[in-house]
Amino acid sequence: MTSAVVTNDGLTSALDRLVDRVHGAEFAVVLSPDGLPLGGSRQVGAELVEQISGVVAGLIGLGLAATRVCEGGALRQVVVQMSRAFLFIATIPNGTILTVRIAGDDVEVGDMAYEVAMFVGQAERHLPIRLGPASSATIGDTGAQQRHR
Questions:
Q1: Contacts of 70 by beta carbon, 8 Å cutoff, 6+ apart
Q2: Contacts for 53-58 with beta carbons within 8 Å, 24 or more apart?
Q3: CA–CA separation, 53 and 85 (whole Å)
Q4: How far apart are CA 94 and CA 102, in angstroms?
């Protein structure tokens, strides 16, 4: 496993820009595949990051179980819709996990979904981490390897 250094300032700036682009976005957090915080936007405190990492770990576990039972391919995203907020949890191809919360009556869920997808697609700029094949086959795998067999 090789790993490049992720500067917290660069990741924080990228997450701040993500949150700033969508009305109602409150915070964004990136977690390692095992749930350790790698960075967060300026709007999120340490206590909330700890709570979010626990919640996300549970939701990712449920999502992975669903992928095995339903045989639908790799887990890409979990969205939790609440009465006044949404929690977007997206897997990044290198195994890390992006979590973004938006809230409010007039939020644009489609805009947030688009921005999350764009961040995931460009994540290597912000998260130059490489993981071994075991993690990438479980979370965020595009399935390209299976199609070419």
A1: none
A2: 53/29, 55/87, 56/29, 56/31, 56/89, 56/97, 56/99, 57/31
A3: 18
A4: 24
